[in-house]
Amino acid sequence: MLHRSGEIRLFFTAPGVQRQGIGTAIHASLETHARMWGLQRLHLHSTWLACTFYEALGYRSHGDAEVLFGALRGYPYEKVL
């Protein structure tokens, strides 16, 4: 889910369909919408397991990990469009 602020708030695929290009295709659609809205960057909090996925899409680490929802460690990432 892409917010008009440029924050990707929710983005995942089911474990059984990971590494098949589905996430990359969904992300391409999010980028298209972001550009249509005139956004210049995207930002998100990644799980540890998804960090390499976002890095492959051109995201860069944007600070230290944060505890989210009292239990989940989120790694902030940002991508300039």
What can you see in these coordinates?
It is built from two helices and four strands. The protein is globular and about 35 Å long. Helix content is 26%, strand content 25%. It has a single domain, classed as Gcn5-related N-acetyltransferase (GNAT) (Aminopeptidase). Strands 1, 2, 3 and 4 form a four-stranded antiparallel β-sheet that branches. By secondary structure, it is an alpha+beta fold. A hairpin with a 3-residue loop joins strand 3 and strand 4.
Helical content (DSSP H or I, runs of 4+): 25-40%
Counted by DSSP, the helix tally is 2
Average pLDDT across residues?
93
Per CATH, the architecture is 3-Layer(aba) Sandwich
User: Into how many domains do the coordinates divide?
Assistant: 1
CATH topology: Aminopeptidase
Radius of gyration: 12 Å
Please mark out the parts with pLDDT under 50 across 5 or more consecutive residues, or reply none. Answer: none
Full CATH superfamily name? Gcn5-related N-acetyltransferase (GNAT)
Quickly name the level 1 CATH class. Alpha Beta
Describe the largest sheet.
4 strands, antiparallel
Distance between the termini: 17 Å
Task: Determine the structural class based on helices, strands and strand pairing.
Answer: alpha+beta
General shape: globular
Number of strands: 4
The quaternary organization reads as single chain
Q: What amount of the residues lies in strands?
A: 15-25%
